[in-house]
UniProtKB/TrEMBL annotation:
Membrane-spanning residues: 12-30, 36-55, 62-83, 95-116, 128-148, 196-225, 231-251, 336-359, 366-384
Protein's recorded name: Lipid A core - O-antigen ligase and related enzymes
Domain of life according to the entry: Bacteria
Keyword Transmembrane helix: yes
Keyword terms: Membrane, Transmembrane, Transmembrane helix
Length: 430
């Protein structure tokens, strides 16, 4: 094995450990509460420290990271006063501990992204795709095992409304959504029928509305951003999305959602989940039959910010992990955008949106394939919270990479005589 091959193998193992928080979230057996939560954030932090010591990171990137997290740290000092004035549940020490815990974790996730060089982007994506294939195949195998023997291994019985669904080692069945999206995009880009088949198997076995919407939505957004050219093609994509949206809204979801067929019930959950957003009468008609927890969490989050006069700046990093359980029980914010709104208010949401848009632009100019993962988690973290910040951190990792010097396209390369010559790869793609 050559030195280069050893380095690639080492990085592949490192990338696998860095993704372990999402792909090895829990081990579940039997009923609802029979599971072990792995909580591998500490392993990800150790992996990031190793990568930084082994490969270092660009000075400009480190400087920018320190400035951003320094600003977050200084801002966090003032939030305990806002929490006390708002008179919400929890002690200041609880909020400080929760903020420090997430602050440290996110810092090292972003630090790891800065250690990734341009030539490491493809191995990172390959590692993610391999883990995605493995997770879906494990899910299919566990479902077949249950049908054959009745052994409930790595299955989900919670929030399933009578539908038993596989989840492999993920947090829940909807966590397959970004995996499905990435495999659909990869199968399309690489003409891989295997990846498309595995992705469709993930959709079929997960029986999750979020997996359907998130997976297909990621594929459509990637095609729209990076693979369509011309107003006519983009218009056709938009029209197709509108037709699909209208079709979903024309379904009689009230009968589908109580159907004995697992497929019909899943379609009903998709349709009802969309329709109750704007149809208040339907929401009340479905009371006791169907519950859109994502809509409920959005309503509760906005009401909380309005009642505490914290719409502009929020309540501080990870604050919702303290007051949401106390105020609303099992209702949690089911979106990274909602979490950002609760943490840093409208100001934080605007800043995060700008980071996402700049990341999209830089990805479209780059020749790496991180955009596949970036788009999938951007879509899925908007409508889902599966895996919590173990999932959100993958999107933040991609954004950090997109904003790092490694993602900058070079227009010139140095020839052997030291003269600058046009980058052939760049010249052929710009």
């Amino acid at each position: 094995m050559t030195l280069r091959e050893k380095l690639v193998t080492t990085r592949l193992l490192e990338f696998g450990l860095m993704l372990s928080g999402y792909f090895l979230y829990s081990i579940r057996w039997g009923g609802e509460n029979q599971q072990i939560l792995m909580s591998l954030g500490w392993l990800q932090i150790l992996t990031a420290i190793y990568a930084f010591l082994r490969y270092s990171a660009p000075t400009r990137g480190i400087t920018a990271l320190v400035i951003v997290f320094g600003f977050m740290g200084v801002a966090q000092i003032f939030y305990p006063f806002a929490i006390e004035n708002a008179n919400i549940p929890g002690e200041s020490s609880q909020y400080i501990e929760a903020a420090v815990r997430l602050y440290v974790y996110l810092f090292f996730v972003c630090l790891h992204a800065l250690t990734v060089r341009r030539q490491d982007a493809q191995p990172f994506v390959s590692t993610f795709l391999h883990l995605s294939r493995l997770s879906i195949l494990i899910a299919v195998g566990c479902m077949l095992l249950y049908w054959a023997t009745g052994i409930p291994l790595l299955l989900n019985f919670y929030f399933s409304q009578g539908i038993i669904r596989p989840q492999a080692f993920l947090s829940e069945p909807s966590a397959f959504a970004p995996l499905v999206g990435c495999l659909l995009i990869s199968g399309w880009l690489n003409n891989s029928r295997k990846d498309v088949a595995i992705a469709l198997a993930g959709i079929a076995f997960a029986l999750s509305p979020i997996t359907i919407l998130g997976g297909i939505g990621a594929f459509v957004l990637y095609a729209f951003l990076y693979k369509t050219r011309g107003a006519l093609v983009k218009g056709a994509v938009i029209v197709s999305c509108l037709v699909a949206f209208i079709s979903v809204n024309m379904m009689d979801c009230t009968s589908l959602v109580v159907s004995e067929s697992a497929i019909d019930r899943t379609l009903g959950r998709v349709s009802c989940g969309v329709q109750v957003i704007y149809d208040g009468n339907l929401r009340y008609a479905l009371e006791g039959i169907f519950y859109n927890d994502r809509l409920e969490s959005a309503i509760k989050s906005v009401e909380f910010l309005r009642d505490t006069n914290s719409v502009a700046i929020g309540m501080g990093l990870n604050s919702s992990s303290i007051f949401m359980p106390e105020l609303y029980g099992e209702v949690r914010e089911n979106s990274l955008w909602l979490s950002t709104l609760l943490f840093y208010g409208v100001f934080g949401v605007v800043v995060f949106a700008l980071m996402c848009m700049i990341g999209m632009a830089r990805m479209s100019r780059a020749t790496d394939t991180i955009a596949v993962i970036f788009v999938a988690f951007l879509v899925c973290s908007t409508i889902n919270s599966a895996g919590g910040f173990y999932g959100y951190s993958i999107l933040l990792w991609c954004i950090t990479f997109a904003l790092s010097p490694a993602c900058r396209r070079r227009r010139y390369v140095l020839a052997q005589n030291g003269d600058r010559q046009p980058n052939v790869e760049t010249a052929s793609t710009t």
